Amino acid sequence: MVTFQDLIDADERVEPRDDMPEAYRTTLIRQIAQHAHSEIIGMQPEGSWITRAPSLKRKAILLAKVQDEAGHGLYLYGAAETLGVAREELLDALHDGRQRYSSIFNYPTPTWADMGAIGWLVDGAAIVNQVPLCRCSYGPYARAMVRICKEESFHQRQGYELLHTLAHGTPEQKSMAQDAVDRWWWPSLMMFGPPDTESTHSAQSMAWKIKRHSNDDLRQRFVDMCVPQAEILGLTLPDPDLRWNAGRGHYDFGEIDWGEFKRVLAGDGPMNRERMAHRKSAHDEGAWVREAARAYAARSAR
Ligand code: ACO
């Protein structure tokens, strides 16, 4: 008899109507929902700069990027819904703290250079983590990721270009760019999740080909990618232990403050309360839109 694992091992794609173990379904709902929530909460740190962008061109770019993030949330909630869960349930779980969103969106954006650092580092880390998800065993998630990754790639480049402009501007602009990189570097490394030795879901998710690489492998890939890019920017990465290890063929880097990561996951990061309060009030204020959409759908069905 062919088992579910045999199909996965043969690189078959799992589609919504296929039989799947309950734990596979719940793991996917957990990960896809967390990912969707990250996209919509991730609109907040940059959204606050749309009205303060320094030129019309920068404003148009930032507006497009934040709209893309809303779109990513929609594709991902749609993918989660194919697993038999309603979007309302997922949002309830976010709002009452049963589901998470990425740790990275609990940090503040005090300067315009943060828009560059988020694009370069946060979206850069997202791409490294998400390109392998285009080959995830669950079809709807994998297909959503293809489009998301293309857009993330534009986001990453716009951030890099923004930082490059600041880094080659006045001394004040350069120091603003450096300060943003100093603040975003370590939280970006935390985006990849806990070390492999402490990752509860990795082994099973890799066996199911939901995840294709471990948290530490992707983190290393990100560090190796960023070091030469920082050199071109003319900025430094805030890690005295960062150096090339010819034996390993990778950059060694310093110890991540996992205590900070745990505090942020427990709800005690610099911006956790503000982000959730804003999300809930946006949801409440949007109630009339959902109501009107439901009434319109009911009338059209009649
Ligand atoms: N922020 C918040 N929670 C995290 C993070 C993080 N950066 N990393 C791990 N966790 C949580 C996990 O959700 C899990 O908690 P749970 O059991 O309560 O759900 C716990 O820490 C242990 O971690 P892992 O066992 O390693 O979890 P997992 O196998 O799901 O791997 C990872 C975590 C790598 C983030 C994975 O879920 C993933 O690839 N998700 C898709 C990408 C994504 O969500 N990106 C969002 C940010 S990018 C963006 O939106 C621009």
From TrEMBL:
Gene Ontology cellular-component terms for this entry are:
cytosol
| Oxidoreductase listed as a keyword | yes
Q: What is its EC number?
A: 1.14.13.149
Can the keyword Oxidoreductase be found in this entry's annotation?
A: yes
State the protein's name: Ring-1,2-phenylacetyl-CoA epoxidase subunit PaaA
Q: Which InterPro entries match?
A: Aromatic_CoA_ox/epox, Ferritin-like, Ferritin-like_SF, PaaA, PaaA_PaaC
What UniProt keywords apply to this chain's record, in alphabetical order? Oxidoreductase
Enzyme class at the top of the EC tree: oxidoreductase
